[in-house]
Amino acid sequence: MNLAPASSPDIAINVEGLSKSFGGREVVHDLSMQVKRGSIYGFLGPNGSGKTTTIRMLCGLLTPDSGEGTCLGYDIRRDADKIKRQVGYMTQRFSLYQDLSVRENLEFVARLYGMPDARGAARDMIQRIGLNGREEQLAGELSGGWKQRLALGACTLPNPQLLLLDEPTAGVDPKARRDFWNEIHALAAEGLTVLVSTHYMDEAERCHEIAYIAYGHLLAHGTVDEVIAKSALSTWTVSGDDLNGLAAELAGKPGVDMVAPFGTSLHVSGRDKAALEATIAPYRDTRGWHWQDSEPSLEDVFIDLMNRSKDNFQ
Amino acid sequence: MSVTEATNRDRGVGEPAFGFWRRSYAMLVKEFIQLRRDRVSFAMIVMIPVMQLLLFGYAINTTPRHLPTAVLIQEDSDLARSVLKALENTSYFRFTREVHSVAEFDDLLQSGKVLFGVEIPRGFERAVRRGDRPALLVAADATDPVAAGSALGSLGVVVQTALAHDLHIGDPPAMPFEIRAHARYNPAAESRLNIVPGLVGTILTMTMLIFTALSVTREIERGTMESLLSMPIKPVEVMFGKIIPYVIVGFIQASLIVGIGVLLFGVPILGSVVLLAALTTLFITTNLSIGYTFSTIVQNQLQAMQMSMMFFLPSILLSGFMFPFSGMPVWAQYLGEGLPLTHYIRIVRAIMLKGAGPANLQYDTIALIALMLVAMTIAVTRFRRTLD
Predict the structure, then answer these.
(1) What is the pLDDT of residue A2?
(2) Buried residues in B288-325 as b, exposed as e (16+ CB within 10 A)
(3) Is residue B145 a contact partner of residue B190, using CB atoms and an 8 Å limit?
(4) Chain A: closest CA distance from residue B219 (Å)
């Protein structure tokens, strides 16, 4: 078994070969990743791909079956207690006390972390997350967007060095999502490391680095540009009439790996550039279609990765 | 127009025939599936009635026999032995201890280690021969009138039996000696004096168990456990944080029950109120710890409730609250010793009705502490620190 590489001070998360099974089904397979301090690391992947399990292993809520590593320099197997003091974990499902008020929830967290002035800390956090005027409202009565802010406030309250956010913006309206991401960037600018899982492509593009995980396997990682470049995917954007008919005709032809409608245009992608061009040649300049050689979007890349991994792992 | 169409129109758009029954059936099928998945609840459905029936059937005896009795023999004579033999032959008395001083005799009765004490006075046989008609004392712990009643009723025949066994007395008068029964602590055999202190313990057992039995499962069911576990808190800290508030609640509840008992039912507190308060607090904490332990073992709130019931039923039946403890078979008595209510009922009756002090209650106090520590240890080790 490999020894985890000694972590340097500018690495927040450094894990190698993490695996975890539940009831004989492997949910995370041999996962290795490194996250730099002060960066926002996006964790992407379809439902059930192992994102939540990985995050839980990082903060000591689950014990990996194999593999090892460090989180903030602490061993994830032995030093779970120390990691918990420095990590803020925002769960996918709202997990603060619904029957406590906003202020009471925050004071509870502050006391639990042994903060000297729990009331003061809670009051400051209410200001920061903009919940003033609602401090006496029960957490269970808040709307989705406010709940999410409260949860973020609760996990940043004890001044952690690392934030683990598990699909924090699921079910939240676009304005609240934007505010939330501004807050995340402000926190990262203060030196916080943020690992955030999401389904949204626009959110992935707001991350410094991303990792794509499907069926428990880490399939790609790097900056958004790196991930797109590494995919070696060629994409043509087609606009014109009867795109549905074109899509049906092209699907499954040699060289065409993926056909996806994007509003009024169609993305046709393939990994074998030559084969793709040979296939589409007869359709170009006919029936008023306009073909344009373009960059694949992050979504194209991810769908392609997912399709390929399905062939490999299922 | 077909018949079906007509019916459909009558019922409104898209309303299927027999809608009421179909929907009820759908609900019913779902409930059965969920019940089948919850193995623990399923097991309890069988276990609760079976356990109750077996306990009622085998363990409970309202005319208890072979009750523990202490003997203070100040004279070793043939007649004395005949009397003791005759007492034993009634099958109500079983001599478990022989004591040598009146103080020891009183102490055993007060602490509840024996239910009866027989004193054979010095010069008994000689007094009988002289025709002085001496008295032989049978003292009974009458706090539980049911337990003591039949045994005391049997004393009338003892003199004759004893004489039939003893041929050394030449020509006895009709009644050469008398047996003086002394029902202590509750001479008027009022059952409320016995029941009210016992109720303090029974009510506390029920309420305290439920308070904590739901506490951990509630966090799991509401999803708050995940965020709690991700924060730096240790299992012992969670446990103390969840138990201590209810110690106060329990204490208020206990004061209320005791207060009503004293004011409305005229039950005395002969012993120290401070001692009663201290040991009641211990009892409350023991029950809270046991409830909390259940909470760390079961998977949901329904199971927690059922487990509390499983514990509560034998507590009522085997603790000596409803039925005399010493009347139960030995196996049931061993089970009873494992229940906090058994020990508390002895404590509360001894303090309130007999004026017992700390020295009399050592054994039951230590038993309560031991049960509490065992429960807490199980709870802390069973508490899952991860979601594995």
Answers:
(1) 42
(2) bbbbbbbbbbbebbbbbbbbbbbbbbbbbbbbbbebbb
(3) yes
(4) 9
Interatomic CA distance for residues B99 and B28, integer angstroms = 66
Of A60, A81, A96, the CB nearest to B227: A96
Per-residue model confidence (pLDDT) at position A291: 87
Nearest to B386 among A61, A95, A112 (CB): A61
**Closest-CA residue in chain B for A81?**
B232
Interface residue A61 vs chain B (CB under 8 A): yes
Question: What's this model's pTM, rounded to 2 decimal places?
Answer: 0.83
Question: Residue A141: its pLDDT value, please?
Answer: 94
**Between residues B8 and B160, the one the model is more confident about:** B160
For residue A81, which residues of chain B lie inside 8 Å, CB to CB?
232
List the single residue in A94, A98, A112 with the smallest CB-CB distance to B231: A112
pLDDT in tens, B35-92: 888 887 788 788 888 887 887 788 777 777 788 888 888 888 877 888 888 888 888 8
Looking at domain A234-295, which of 1.10.357, 3.30.1310, 3.40.50, 3.30.70 is its CATH number? 3.30.70
Residue A35: strand, helix, or coil: strand
> Chain B contact for A85, CB < 8 A?
yes
Run of H or E including A222? strand A217-222
Using CA coordinates, name the residue in chain A closest to B221. A95
The predicted structure's pLDDT at residue A67: 93
Query: Helix, strand or coil for residue A210?
Result: strand
Q: What is the DSSP string of B275-301?
A: HHHHHHHHHHHHHHHHHHHHHHH-SSH
What residues of chain B lie within 8 A of the CB of A112, using their CB?
231-233
Q: Tell me the per-residue pLDDT of B307-345, one tens digit each, with 9 for 90 and over.
A: 998 899 889 888 988 888 887 888 888 999 999 999 999
- Cα A75 from Cα A52, distance rounded (Å): 19
Residues of A in contact with B387 (CB under 8 A): 56, 61-62
Sign of CA dihedral B90, B92, B98, B99: negative
**pLDDT at B171 > cutoff 70:** no
ipTM above 0.85, yes or no: no
Nearest CB to A62: which of B225, B233, B387? B387
- Contact status of A91 with chain B (Cβ, < 8 Å): yes
Is the predicted pLDDT of residue A200 greater than 80, yes or no?
yes
Name chain A contacts of B224, Cβ cutoff 8 Å: 95-97
pLDDT at A138: 95
pLDDT for A56 beyond 90: yes
Beta bridge partners of B181: B138
Q: What is the mean pLDDT of residues A244-267?
A: 85
Given CB atoms, is B10 within the 8 Å cutoff of chain A?
Answer: no
Among B222, B230, B386, beta carbon nearest to A63? B386
Please state the domain extents for chain A. 39-64+83-223, 234-295
Q: Which residues from chain A sit within 8 angstroms of residue B233, using beta carbons?
A: 112
Intrachain domains A39-64+83-223 and A234-295 with the same fold? no
Q: How confident is the model at residue A3 (pLDDT cuts 50, 70, 90)?
A: very low
Mean residue pLDDT of chain A comes to 88
Q: How far is A84 from chain B (nearest CA, A)?
A: 5
A211 closest CA partner among A18, A78, A82, A79: A18
CATH T-level topology, domain A39-64+83-223 = Rossmann fold (3.40.50)
- Tell me the CA end-to-end span of chain B in Å, nearest whole number: 62
